[in-house]
């Protein structure tokens, strides 16, 4: 698939950090931006960053209903 060109306005310090990061990680700034944009959710109901960080905190043996019951008991 052909690539599309994208022009961004970014703080020069951020650009410098991105270049250093990409060099250390053997990638390019373009690949970093592409990976970030590809990771964005299309859904309006996409999880917030906090919710994504909490995903997987409970053991897999705990069902959603078990957790809801726990919350009902704890908070009424």
Q: Quick summary of this structure?
A:
With 76 residues, the protein is mainly alpha-helical.
Structure description:
The chain has one domain. It is elongated. 55% of the residues lie in helices and 0% in strands. The mean pLDDT is 85. With 76 residues, it is mainly alpha-helical.
Tags for this entry?
single chain, mainly alpha
Helix content percent band: 55-70%
Shape: elongated
Terminus-to-terminus distance: 54 Å
Number of domains: 1
Tell me the layout of helices and strands.
Layout: H1 12-24, H2 29-39, H3 49-54, H4 64-75
